[in-house]
Known about the structure:
The protein has one domain (6-119): Bacterial Pleckstrin homology domain (PH-domain like, Roll).
Amino acid sequence: MALFGNAHTIDPGKAAREYARLLGQGEQIHGAYQLIRDAILLTNQRMILIDKQGLTGKKIEYHSLPYRSITHFSVETAGHFDLDAELKIWVSGSSTPIEKTFTKGVNIYEVQAILTQFVAR
Length: 121
């Protein structure tokens, strides 16, 4: 599953209010990123990929990836000519990584730190 787009940071408190119905008891958002229409939430329990579909975006698919299913991930920082940073996540049972592209305004090291904190458990 390859999902592409440029992301920017969302305030975790705002994301928690907007996506409260997706969160389990005691689940907290540590990082939130908005793609053009989609979003990525990094909680203390899992990664949630929010995929708005169709022209109106009323149909929404939610992918829940428990951190224990992530086998490894890679981060590629932005360069001089390529201003976007990239995140690739491999999930057990799939040889194709999930790919996300983050704009210059997102601290890719923060994303990597959150993943490291929860994937390494």
